[in-house]
Design brief:
Layout: E1 8-11, E2 15-20, E3 23-28, E4 34-37, H1 39-47, E5 52-53, H2 54-64, H3 69-85, E6 89-92
Antiparallel strand pairs: 1-5, 1-6, 2-3, 3-4
Helix pairs in contact: 2-3
Length: 93
């Protein structure tokens, strides 16, 4: 999946999630599969409960984590692609 900086990402309506000590547990309501996210993934998950562009996510996370920009963008794109493949997020644009 090729995500542009202007692509908008938001959590799917077909999931429920809970925070367990800083890590997210997510249930896909369509297929009954459970997924988990580490603390950084959970931060992204929290941010996309309202629609955000890839650029917005990158800029917010760059201010919160000590990581070089190319690595951050690559990891973010990878995470969002995985979430999209599992139908846990909706991506527009």
């Amino acid at each position: 999946m090729d995500l542009s900086e202007k692509a908008t990402v938001v959590v799917s309506k077909d999931q429920v999630s809970s925070d367990f000590g800083g890590e997210a547990a997510i249930l896909n309501l369509r297929n009954g599969m459970h997924y988990g996210l580490d603390s950084v993934g959970t931060r992204v998950w929290d941010l996309i409960h309202q629609p955000r562009t890839l650029a917005e996510l990158r800029d917010i996370l760059a201010g919160e984590y000590d990581v070089d920009a190319p690595r951050l963008e690559s990891d973010l794109r990878n995470l969002l692609s995985q979430l999209a493949d599992k139908e846990l997020v909706e991506i527009a644009g």
